[in-house]
Amino acid sequence: MRAIRKGDDSDMGAREDLELVPGAMEVSEAAEAEEQRKLLRASFIAKTMTVVLTLSLLILWPMPMYGSGYVFSEKFFTGWVVVGIMWLFGSLGCVGIYPLWEGRKSLAHNISSIFKDITGKEHPSKHHRSEATYVEGKHVGVETPPTREKEIPDEKTTIVQ
Which of 29, 42, 90, 116 has its CA 20 to 30 A from that of 147? Predict the structure, then answer.
């Protein structure tokens, strides 16, 4: 969590509320300690639930049926298989299909860009500047470079190729 806050998004500060920009707010030691306590608690709960559910669903629930000599009736076995198959399809939907649906626009863009690059219809460098821009008086590496010449303020600029 700390590494996320340390990103340099100072260029966003002019456009948005500083509370929304990671790293722009000063966080006290007490608030950071409280956040760490909450993260450790959530981690403990997640790990505990993983162990409990694994033991319950894989050992404690099915094993007594095997140990008791219980013989599945055809109706019970059919129900067991149907519930298992429904569980598999539900899991497939949640873990496999839903993330693809959420990222469908990004996937479509990436796939079409790859296809255009492979077939030679469009080159990826179209989306990047081929030259570097140097603004006299500016320190190197402290801000995001402008994307177009008209965004450069009225300062002496030199295009380096």
Answer: 116
